[in-house]
Design the sequence.
């Protein structure tokens, strides 16, 4: 049963049934082209060396392979924007409830949920594992960040842990949290503020990518909305009576662009003019911009925000406009990958045939931002990136299409198994929780301490 993914790839590859001498060369070709093929070969051999509880976890995930594939495609086929993920919310909660989870729909937020399971015997020292699901899409291009895969990864991890808790003699508690609005809405931040994470000891999830990175660099991000107000006038007859708010917006954009020469290499500022006027013959009396500011630490992000603020105010003064601006309440914090958790994930992943990235350039390259960063500031957390065997960037139509492929699905399940096994390690060694929390206290920003 566990090997049927491998058999699917064998069936697609007639060269693997050639004579032995030819077949050996063909196997090398297939393993280079399809990483999932190589990893499934490792999985079949490593299962023989696993503890019974870990075998049960892997088998539970593989048993639901077809159903998980159908769930992923269902979410992919019905892309929904942040805080409006009604179809995905219903699909995932139905799936979990049908498999014995205790599900609370519309938990704290309309499209959030909480699903739980536990071993029969628990006490105050029993670890509680938090597993995150995401399922929102991007405007215009659907699931171009692969959240259909993130959703089933969370479900898969949960299936494996639940099986170990209920059938494998592992002592622990499990919380699956459905998290809406990662794409700019900060759903996890709202859930933090509502107390949804208060009973968890750690939090885990993963994200499809180009590389296998157990400790990816996610930077802090804060949105900034800007509105300039001027005075309307006829642009031909009486332009001198007007105050041009579009000029202020353009000057603000140029100010920020000029500032880039003096920004640290790890800082990012990018924005768009979202409103620039009504008609060419009317001096624009209002303009609007939206910016994202990003930096790798909370302190640097505050410094960068101050510099952008000066650019904004300078444009208003130069053009005679008034300006109103505000930074978003749901700013994304930098991700703190818990080293103990990440190491457990690596060890279990390597036993399943996962080859983690070791190129220093790729290891240190910063990516985007995520509200999982905020979770990592209050709980020991990991948010690894895993390869779906592509070099195209996320937030593109090519990545969207890749997230629908069977290969991406199979790779997602392999990494789901590795994360489920890491969670089982935590449950089997409760003192790890205190060690993970001690590590977090050394690294977290003072404002995040609870």
Sequence:
């Amino acid at each position: 049963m566990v090997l049927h993914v491998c058999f699917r790839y064998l069936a697609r590859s007639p060269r693997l049934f050639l004579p032995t001498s030819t077949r050996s060369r063909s196997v090398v070709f297939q393993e280079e082209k399809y990483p999932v093929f190589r990893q499934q070969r490792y999985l079949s051999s490593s299962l023989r060396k696993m503890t019974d509880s870990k075998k049960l976890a892997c088998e539970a995930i593989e048993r639901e392979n077809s159903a998980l594939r159908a769930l992923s495609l269902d979410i992919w086929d019905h892309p929904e924007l942040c805080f409006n993920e009604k179809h995905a919310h219903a699909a995932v909660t139905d799936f979990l409830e049908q498999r014995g989870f205790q599900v609370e729909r519309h938990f704290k937020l309309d499209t959030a949920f909480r699903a739980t399971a536990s071993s029969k015997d628990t006490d105050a020292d029993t670890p509680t594992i938090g597993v995150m699901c995401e399922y929102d899409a991007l405007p215009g291009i659907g699931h171009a960040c692969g959240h259909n895969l993130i959703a089933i990864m969370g479900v898969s991890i949960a299936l494996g842990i639940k099986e170990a808790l209920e059938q494998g003699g592992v002592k622990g508690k499990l919380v699956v949290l459905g998290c809406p609005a990662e794409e700019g809405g900060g759903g996890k931040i709202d859930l933090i503020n509502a107390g949804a994470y208060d009973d968890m000891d750690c939090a885990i999830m993963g994200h499809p990518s180009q590389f296998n990175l157990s400790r990816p660099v996610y930077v802090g991000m804060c949105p900034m909305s800007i509105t300039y107000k001027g005075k309307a006038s006829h642009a031909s007859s009486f332009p001198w009576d007007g105050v041009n708010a579009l000029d202020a917006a353009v000057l603000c954009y140029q100010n920020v662009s000029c500032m880039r020469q003096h920004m640290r290499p790890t800082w990012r500022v990018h924005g768009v003019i979202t409103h620039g006027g009504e008609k060419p013959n009317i001096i624009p009396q209002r303009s609007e911009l939206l910016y994202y500011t990003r930096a790798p630490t909370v302190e640097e992000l505050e410094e960068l925000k101050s510099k952008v603020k000066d650019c904004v105010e300078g444009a208003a003064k130069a053009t005679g406009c008034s300006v109103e601006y505000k930074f978003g309440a749901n700013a994304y914090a930098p991700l703190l990958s818990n080293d103990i958790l990440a190491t457990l994930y690596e060890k279990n992943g390597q036993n399943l045939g996962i080859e983690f990235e070791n190129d220093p350039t790729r290891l240190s390259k910063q990516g985007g931002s995520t509200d999982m960063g905020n979770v990592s500031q209050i709980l020991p957390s990991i948010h690894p990136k895993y390869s779906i065997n592509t070099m195209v960037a996320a937030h593109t139509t090519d990545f969207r299409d890749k997230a629908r492929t069977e290969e991406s699905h199979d790779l997602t399940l392999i990494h789901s198994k590795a994360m489920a096994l890491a969670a089982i390690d935590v449950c089997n060694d409760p003192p790890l929780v205190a060690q993970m929390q001690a590590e977090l206290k050394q690294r977290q920003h003072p404002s995040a301490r609870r």
